[in-house]
Amino acid sequence: MKLKLGLLAAAGTLAALFTGCLVVSVYPYYNEKDLVFETGLVGSWSKTDGQSERWKFEKQDTNTYQLTVTNSSGTNVMQAHLFKLRGQLFIDLYAPDASTDVQPPPIPSHLLLRVQSLSPSLKLTVLDFAWLRDLLLKNPKALRHEIIKTNDKPEDRPIALTADTAELQAFLAQHLDTKEAWSDPFELKRD
Question: What is the pLDDT of residue 98?
Fold first, then answer.
């Protein structure tokens, strides 16, 4: 299932990047102590698969980037926080000023990107929706969550993680080496 524009303001533009649903969290995936700043992330990046999509990371403050994603559907601006967990880099995306002109207003949420490389290209991946869905159906206590009731087929219903940051990090640490837990990477090249 593809996430529709307007369903999640922070991730609408990003939805086209992925073949499946996006996994979102109510809580951030990082604590302040986990944040790092890499100047190599700052700048403009473009998709390598020929799509006209541009990502621009700008320094917002000490450990926060402003990410602007532009494609043929429009422009989304969000905060990006780069953090390390067990030596692995991740990016937590969050739109603090999500549109309130949609009623009911969307619940602000966090989207996780795993950084596979920063140079020479930026390679990113997300938690694999189908893997997580299957895991949570078999073991609902593996991670606190809600499966959002929609008109979609049950296997396509969005998952909202409701676990707190500590639980999210413990879950990620447990599955860092679980190959099936991560989608195929997508790549951005520096403009």
Answer: 63
